[in-house]
């Protein structure tokens, strides 16, 4: 059990916390805030970048494990690798996190709340992650109440490049990946694949039978530049997963249940630039399909399953009449589909959503950047939702100090399941709505070798959808409030040493007025988390590093009667360059064998070691 009440915020920032990136301020371009490339000094919102070097150094298998050391993030996982995992940003529901891969929205329309299951998302094909914290529905539409997780695969290299790695470790785990990319004249592209298998652990905390997992992920992209002004982008991503899991009907216990997933993601976009880049257009079609089948016994026909499809058309225009002004505007049409079979019944539902938005980006005086926008979404079921957003970033000293202010509104459309399920659906549901405020300051020191960042935030959410035990249907019965502080320290005292630290305090509570829950902490959202990471590159080719993450107490249920004790986890890692192109690497996770849980009655990994080899050409 961890107690932080006697530890000051400043002491935590200086002594122990970690952010999830090695070079947070040393990577200056982001795209998630406005949907176009921007310098960080122009953005008033809180964004964390996890870059390719960090992903490689950390040697993490799960994207969740990288996100867990990001300020403002809380996560839960129901057992072995591959099991259901959710991400909460600033105390929001896990279903209120918008997730993108290579520009494609991948939240599952067949999920109960349209959430995304991070359990099957491994790091094999991912080269960059941007995490935007705070409501931002003006740019991203439904579900961006807590924030946005934007994942990207690697852009093609100039010329030709190839990379491959393979590792083996605890519980007969095999993890291998490879990718090729290159550019030839007007054509550039790449292709990659990753394979993972493990015997796993028992997902049930009291179980003895291991729950195995297999995952194959593939990605490809192609860009054709027909001219300096016109280009075509094609991107694809695929995941096939097979998971043994322990029954969740009641307390989890050893069982023979199996879940299989096929996830298809596609993007086709046409880009046009006119008037020396003063006017650019992007028209794209994106497609995502999740197919989930569940088996009580392996080798039999599926007992039940879900299919969720989301087809989107997007148009975005950017007008830049001057170097200090841009107008971003767009139209989107989205058609989520939901199909279910099992237990003697079938169901199929769909909706149509049309959206328009406009965003102005201005720099009226040196050092001041202002952004403001509005969006309107029209849903075929519940009607319209209008959201506003504005933020500002001011630097009096050419980026050494940045003062940030942000206001954002978010909304989340009811899921097709919540609207139309034959047992618990409610066609009268209204969208969830949020208002989010934050203020922060970033201070760069020692010629950019140190950065201190502190952000305070507040979010109020109304009409939150929950299951109503009085009517046995879903209803807009919840109100919640989340407030807190995020702090980050990044140091590079010498070129060979990177140290990052983060701390976040999140007070997320029920404000529904229901006697059993009002004022209680929202489940699985610890108030405090702190993390520290350091990596050192030795002169003779050895690189060593360590990460310590500490998470405070939380509760597993809304009534706050089931406690999850806080925990501390340490991991160490090393790599050694055999040649300029080949290196060996290894790590030990949960070094001290901490016994902990992120979901009640579900197991977690003890001490585990892995080793492998990487090659670059």
What is this entry, summarized?
The protein has 617 residues and is mainly β. It has helices spanning 9-15, 52-58, 63-67, 137-140, 416-420; strands at 29-30, 38-39, 46-50, 73-77, 85-89, 97-101, 104-105, 128-133, 147-152, 160-169, 173-184, 187-198, 213-225, 230-247, 253-274, 279-295, 304-322, 325-342, 345-350, 353-362, 368-379, 383-394, 401-412, 432-445, 450-468, 473-491, 497-510, 528-537, 542-551, 554-555, 563-564, 567-577, 582-589, 608-616. The chain is built from 5 helices and 34 strands.
Please, could you describe this protein's structure?
This protein has a single domain (9-616), classed as Maltoporin, Chain A. The chain has helices at residues 9-15, 52-58, 63-67, 137-140, 416-420; strands at residues 29-30, 38-39, 46-50, 73-77, 85-89, 97-101, 104-105, 128-133, 147-152, 160-169, 173-184, 187-198, 213-225, 230-247, 253-274, 279-295, 304-322, 325-342, 345-350, 353-362, 368-379, 383-394, 401-412, 432-445, 450-468, 473-491, 497-510, 528-537, 542-551, 554-555, 563-564, 567-577, 582-589, 608-616. It is built from five helices and 34 strands. Helices cover 5% and strands 57% of the residues. It starts with 8 loop residues before the first helix and ends with a strand. The strands form five sheets. It has a 22-stranded antiparallel barrel. It has 617 residues and is mostly beta strands. The longest helix has 7 residues, at 9-15.
CATH topology-level fold name: Maltoporin, Chain A
Radius of gyration: 23 Å
Distance from N terminus to C terminus (CA atoms, Å) equals 47 Å
- Structural category is mainly beta
The assigned CATH architecture is: Beta Barrel
Major sheet summary line: 22 strands, antiparallel, barrel
Average pLDDT confidence is 92
Task: Report the top-level CATH class.
Answer: Mainly Beta
Beta-strand portion reads over 45%
GO biological process, one term: cobalamin transport
Membrane topology: Multi-pass membrane protein
Keywords: Cell outer membrane, Ion transport, Membrane, Receptor, Signal, TonB box, Transmembrane, Transmembrane beta strand, Transport
InterPro entries: Beta-barrel_TonB (IPR000531), Beta-barrel_TonB_sf (IPR036942), Plug_dom (IPR012910), Plug_dom_sf (IPR037066), TonB-dep_rcpt-like (IPR039426)
């Amino acid at each position: 059990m961890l107690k932080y009440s006697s530890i000051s915020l400043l002491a935590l920032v200086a002594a122990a916390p970690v952010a999830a990136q090695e070079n947070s301020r040393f990577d200056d371009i982001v795209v998630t805030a406005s949907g176009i490339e921007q310098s960080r000094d122009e953005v008033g919102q809180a964004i964390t970048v996890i870059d390719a070097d960090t992903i490689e150094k950390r040697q993490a298998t799960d994207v969740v494990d990288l996100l867990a050391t990001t300020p403002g993030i809380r996560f839960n996982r129901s057992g072995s690798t591959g099991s259901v995992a959710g991400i909460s940003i600033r105390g929001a529901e896990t279903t209120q996190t918008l997730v993108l891969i290579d520009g494609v929205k991948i939240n599952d329309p067949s999920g109960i709340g349209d959430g995304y299951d991070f359990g099957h998302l491994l790091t094999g094909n991912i080269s960059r992650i941007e995490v935007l914290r705070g409501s931002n529905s003006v740019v991203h539409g439904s579900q961006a109440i807590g924030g946005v997780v934007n994942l990207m695969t690697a852009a093609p290299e100039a010329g030709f490049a190839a990379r491959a790695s393979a590792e083996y470790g605890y519980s007969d785990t095999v993890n291998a990946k490879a990718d090729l990319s290159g550019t030839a004249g007007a054509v550039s592209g790449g292709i990659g694949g990753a394979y993972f298998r493990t015997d796993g652990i028992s997902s049930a905390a009291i179980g003895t039978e291991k729950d195995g997992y297999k995952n194959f992920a593939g990605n490809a992209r192609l860009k054709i530049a027909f001219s300096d002004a016109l280009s075509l982008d094609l991107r694809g991503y695929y995941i096939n997963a097979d998971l043994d899991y322990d029954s969740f009907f009641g307390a989890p216990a050893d069982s023979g249940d199996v879940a299989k997933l096929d996830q298809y993601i596609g993007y086709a976009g046409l880009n046009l630039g006119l008037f020396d880049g003063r006017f650019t257009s992007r028209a794209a079609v994106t497609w995502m399909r999740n197919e989930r089948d569940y088996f009580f016994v392996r080798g039999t026909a599926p007992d039940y399953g879900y299919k969720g499809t989301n087809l989107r058309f997007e148009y975005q225009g950017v007008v830049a009449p001057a170097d200090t002004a841009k107008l971003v505007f767009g139209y989107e049409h989205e058609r989520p589909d939901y199909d279910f079979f099992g237990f003697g019944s079938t169901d199929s539902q769909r909706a149509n959503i049309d959206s328009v938005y406009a965003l102005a980006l201005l720099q009226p005086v040196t050092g001041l950047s202002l952004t403001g926008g509005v969006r309107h979404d029209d849903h075929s079921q519940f009607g319209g939702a209008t959201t506003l957003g504005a933020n500002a970033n001011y630097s009096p000293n050419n980026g050494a100090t940045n003062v940030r202010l942000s206001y954002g509104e978010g909304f989340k459309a009811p899921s097709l399941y919540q609207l139309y399920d034959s047992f618990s659906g409610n066609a009268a549901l209204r969208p969830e709505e949020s208002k989010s405020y934050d203020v922060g300051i970033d201070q760069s020191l020692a010629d950019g070798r140190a950065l201190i960042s502190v952000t305070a935030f507040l979010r109020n959410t109304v009409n939150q959808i929950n299951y109503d035990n009085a009517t046995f249907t879903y209803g807009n019965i919840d109100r919640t409030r989340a407030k807190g502080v995020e702090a980050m320290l990044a140091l590079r005292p010498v070129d060979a040493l990177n140290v990052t630290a983060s701390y976040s305090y999140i007070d997320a509570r029920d404000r529904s007025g229901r006697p059993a829950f009002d004022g209680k902490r929202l489940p699985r959202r610890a108030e405090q988390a702190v993390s520290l990471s350091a990596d050192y590159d030795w002169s003779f080719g050895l690189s060593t590093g360590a990460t310590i993450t500490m998470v405070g107490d939380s509760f597993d249920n809304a009534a706050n009667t089931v406690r999850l004790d806080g925990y501390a986890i340490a991991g160490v890692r090393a790599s050694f360059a055999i040649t300029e192109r080949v290196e060996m690497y290894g790590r030990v996770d949960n070094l001290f064998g901490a016994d902990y849980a992120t979901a009640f009655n579900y197991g977690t990994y003890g001490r585990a070691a892995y080793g492998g080899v990487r090659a670059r050409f």
